[in-house]
Amino acid sequence: MRLPVLFLTIFIAAQTVPAMAEEAEATAYLSKHEVPLPTTRQVVVCHGFGCKYRTSVRFAANDIARLRQILRRGQRSAGDEIDAIANAVAWFERRVGPVTGTNRRTPRAGPDQAGEPGEADCIDQSVNTTVLLLLLSDLDLLKHHEVVGPESRGYLLDMRYPHTTAVIANLRTGSRWAIDPWTKRNGERPDTLPLERWMQGS
Hints:
This protein has helices at 3-32, 61-72, 78-100, 122-138, 195-199, and strands spanning 42-47, 53-58, 145-153, 163-170, 176-180, 191-194. The chain is of the alpha+beta class and 202 residues long.
């Protein structure tokens, strides 16, 4: 092998392995909650708090076409892509809500809603959002970001209630963004915040 080719091969491998490792954290998170990886034909959605219920939702060609249409608007820049991802999350919730019964779920659902099939806590929401993000990645619709493992804040000892969110990372800068629909009604655009800012929330 010629030296320039060898160096190029090493460089490409060095760039690819970290990205694969980051996405592996996201897939491991789904495995932890016994949720299979999404496909273009089916996704499994958590609800009822802590993935107490897992509902399979069938996807058709028009669903995938709609996701492609939404993400196409985010190709120009990283900021545009975050905006498009927020729109995709809102669409996804509207799409699966009637099937799972979560179309009228409570924003910031807490202990009073625990165990109810029509409700979702932050674990459900972080799993479901990660499912969608991995599907977008598999469809090669993310041009500026990669899917990474969810992050958590609040451990009661710091007087904050525990909370978890799905996360994406900018491919160029490495900056991370929280994609958090738990604070909103079903089908509304999720919070999209730099992870450092999200971590400071309560």
